[in-house]
């Protein structure tokens, strides 16, 4: 499996170009400590119509990051640039374990929680966030700091957490609306 994953990473590495190097490095930096996702959540919190999605985003990112922090020392997978030292990194090497990808987990958790909370009709809000999450996950492969399985596992983990938080958020909102109607009677 490692050989296949290295082949995938090397094929992505062949795409390297100065503009892409800069874009992927900036994307990765923006995902560090979930900064970009917390900025998006803060923006959603400013409007009453998206506040619930902002809260769901904060909760889901915190949960995803916590789960990833608990899993990394259990799996203790070395990063691909440590396995193949012939690769020249274009960012500072991350110092923790590889599996699962925290960037992919937080990105997918945030995007899915927002999408589930807002619903299909509000796709103009969540679709660009989902696209950004996809690019964030890809950046980790492009930068050779994660294995494809790290990113896939992080994405699945994040999507699961985002779905649970988003559905819970919608359920809480429905209960609150029902109670509000009962008090008006």
Description:
The protein is mainly α and 185 residues long. The protein has one domain. Helices cover 76% and strands 0% of the residues. The chain has 8 helices and no strands. α4 (51-75) packs antiparallel against α6 (102-118). The radius of gyration is 18 Å and the shape is elongated. 39% of the residues are buried. The mean pLDDT is 93.
Beta content comes to under 5%
On the 0 to 100 scale, the average pLDDT is: 93
Give the structural class.
mainly alpha
User: Total number of helical segments?
Assistant: 8
Order of SSEs: HHHHHHHH
Shape type: elongated
Question: Secondary-structure blueprint of this entry?
Answer:
Elements lengths: L1 H12 L4 H14 L3 H11 L5 H25 L4 H4 L18 H17 L4 H20 L5 H37 L1
Helix pairs in contact: 2-7, 3-4, 4-6, 4-8, 6-7, 6-8
Provide key terms for this protein.
185 residues, mainly alpha, 8 helices
How would you briefly describe this protein structure?
This protein has helices spanning 2-13, 18-31, 35-45, 51-75, 80-83, 102-118, 123-142, 148-184. The protein has 185 residues and is mostly helical.
